[in-house]
Specification:
FAD/NAD(P)-binding domain, globular, seven-stranded mixed sheet, about 425 residues, alpha+beta, four-stranded antiparallel sheet
Length: about 425
């Protein structure tokens, strides 16, 4: 049996950004401010990706200009405290920032396939409530986190560690009704919570994977916290069946965890579950192989590159692949001793052999270890901004993104940072 159908052809635009998470927000803003006509495709009805759908708070100390603009907006509304923020206000202000830049936002619209001519991307096929639509463009920026667009175009990629194993996933959740003062008096160190979780595990109240105190983050303006507490291993975030199984099991576990917190942790006696994240937190899937592959050695050396267009200021953060134990953090001392960042080269955003496409965010060209550092939302937004600036320049000059010089991208970023 075979299946075929005619797909309506939409109007051509300069740049299509697939994915509206931190990388996609940066990419759309960067491309539009470089003078390109930009359409952003997002599967949900809002922007933010892991920052909103994933409830991954805090955003993390970071340097990108787009992030600073966004958080200035949040602070003006009383919706941010440092890099902690209210996810609902984040959605609103991310919309406004991109609309003011002239970006067309296409919500409830998912990437489906690529349109190719030889080894060059000529557009994408999108799926929405309106049906299938072929959308031609000059440059596509893959901000799907999983490298879905680049992989569909035939780009080379790796997955996980050298043996193919990937970091575990986590379902974030939000609780309210907490006596934060009482909890803070109790929680003077991680060991306090670790003891409570040990009791819960020993009693069979939570799974063995609920073993790391990774984050209790207060949401500005209330008695709510976002909780990052357990790992779920053995999941391939590019496999729908795996994702479905993980969503089912982690949601079950959230209810066990919330009951255990009320039972064992002072201040949580009257706490209640507000919501679970709309999307599972996936830490690792595809790394698209680009013209350069960032390595652990680059992170340890806090290396600076001539074609550096983004920065990572975080240490290597890898969660145990079997899901048990705390995440390992390395390179902290190196970053303290040297200039505290590693450059991300433009070459890491340019897939080998495939033209008219750039990648930004978690799927950028890096090893398992280096991705473990630069997967945070700040560096992803920074990469997106750089990819957007490059895509805008390439579209305006009618050349391939790989033909744009890193110096031209750096100059455009400086112009935008100065005027944004």
């Amino acid at each position: 049996m075979s299946y075929s159908r005619e797909i309506p052809l939409g109007e051509e635009t300069d740049v299509i950004v697939c994915g509206g998470g931190p990388a996609g927000i940066g990419a759309a803003a960067g491309a539009a401010r470089a003078g390109a006509r930009v359409t952003l495709l997002e599967q949900y009805g809002f922007l933010g990706g892991m920052a909103t759908a994933g409830l991954v708070l805090p955003f993390g100390d970071t340097q990108p200009a787009i992030a600073r603009e966004l958080f200035d907006r949040l602070e003006a509304r009383g919706a941010a405290n440092g890099w902690n923020y209210d996810p609902e206000t984040f959605k609103l202000e991310a919309n406004e920032l991109l609309l003011e830049a002239g970006v067309e936002l296409r919500f409830h619209t998912a990437f489906c396939d690529v349109m190719m001519s030889g080894n060059a991307v000529k557009g994408v096929v999108a799926l929405s409530k309106s049906g299938l639509e072929a959308l031609p463009c000059r440059v596509v920026i893959d901000c799907t986190a999983d490298g879905d667009v680049a992989a569909s175009a035939g780009a080379e990629f790796s997955k996980g560690r050298s043996d193919g194993r990937m970091q575990p996933v986590t379902l974030m959740f939000r609780m309210g009704g907490i006596d934060l003062e009482r909890y803070r008096n109790y929680e003077q160190s991680d060991d306090r919570m670790e003891k409570a979780l040990t009791k819960a595990r020993d009693a069979g109240d939570v799974s063995p994977f609920t073993c790391s105190v990774m984050g209790f983050v207060p949401v500005p303006g209330g008695r709510e916290v976002v909780i990052n507490l357990s790992n779920f291993p053995g999941i391939d975030g590019t496999n729908a069946r795996d994702l479905s199984r993980a969503e089912i099991e982690t949601r079950r576990e959230v209810f066990r965890i919330t009951a255990a917190l009320r039972k064992y942790v002072p201040g949580f006696e009257q706490a209640y579950l507000i919501d679970t994240a709309a999307h599972l937190g996936v830490r690792e899937t595809r790394q698209i192989i680009g013209e350069y592959v960032l390595t652990a050695e680059d992170i340890f050396e806090a290396k600076k590159f001539e074609d550096g267009v983004a920065r990572n200021i975080f240490e290597i953060d890898i969660h145990p692949l079997d899901g048990i134990g705390r995440a390992s953090h390395t390179a902290k001392e190196v970053f303290r001793a040297k200039e505290p960042w590693v450059d991300i080269p433009y070459r890491c955003l340019v897939p080998r052999k495939i033209d008219n496409i750039l990648v930004a965010g978690r799927c950028f060209s890096a090893t398992h270890e280096a991705m473990g550092a630069a997967r945070r939302m700040g560096p992803c937004m920074d990469m997106g901004h750089a990819a957007g600036a490059a895509a805008g320049l390439a579209a305006r000059q009618n050349i391939k993104p790989r033909e744009i010089s890193a110096a031209a991208v750096q100059q455009e970023l400086q112009r935008q940072n100065a005027s944004g």
